Amino acid sequence: MSLYNAIDSNDILLVIGATPDEYTTNHKPFNALETFFLTNIENAYGTIGDSFKHHAKGKYYHVYGPLDDLLRGLLSEAEKQHFLNQPCPPSPDNLNHREVLPPRAGYVDMAAFYLRLHEWWPENSVVFDDVCLAYKDRQYVTQRPNSHLRSYSLYRGSAMGGAFGAAVGTKIASPDSSVFIFTGDGCFRLFSGALGEARDFGIVIFLLNNAYFSIVGQGLPIIMPEVSEDRYHSRLTEIDYCGVARACGWDAEKVNDDLSNLDEILNKIGSRRSRSILVEIPVDPLQTLGLNPRAHNL
Description:
Strand content: 15-25%
Protein name: Thiamine pyrophosphate-dependent enzyme
Helix content: 25-40%
InterPro entries: THDP-binding, TPP-bd_CS, TPP_enz, TPP_enzyme_TPP-bd
Family: Belongs to the TPP enzyme family.
CATH architecture of the largest domain: 3-Layer(aba) Sandwich
Oligomer: single chain
Keywords: Thiamine pyrophosphate
Cofactor: thiamine diphosphate
């Protein structure tokens, strides 16, 4: 946010497929002299007349089309031009600067878990992040896109559990895709009654079990610091999630806290056919990986 807030009339802003809403920029305007907005979504959230012109202080240009084609065109033209500004140095391998503390005993180190998955994703994977820690933590840890997967985070609107329906629809529309869900134990409660109908879809659920509404627990101290923790109502009763999945006809596995069985589980996922599988991960609710900009914007 500090970089975005520093933009002024001396700058040219190029926006590529972003959504300048309360989750990202807190609806702060485009303060640049000129803004070029590239998007592949018609009538996107927050637009007026299919444009963010109302959001811009300076001149605004709205370009619609496939982002990969637009970027190739920009790069091709850029190679023909001589720019007077200073070129930026290559970005460092590690874009993060915060110290991330390890989890307490008995919990999986989620940073190591996400990095292992980042190396493993099969080709043609589709990943949905539910309204849980994954939508901020996974991207914070991996830092860069993965060419093997398309990823969708469903936090806008805070509709907990919505990732399940999106995954089912994706599997029906594209049966050959490998479809994955990251969901929390709170979100899981909102769609688990429909597991039986999806048992033969070949969907993979990574269930983050921390017995806690962590988005609530991590957000309320910032949003409503005057409220005491005993009023958060964020604790969840432990249940046998693998048992629930198996009772609905799913396969189920639980990741060891030292990740010693993770490769075995991933091999099982890679070799299975139509049976859906739930993978439970014990998560430390006190381990904070990615920050939640939305919490600061509320």
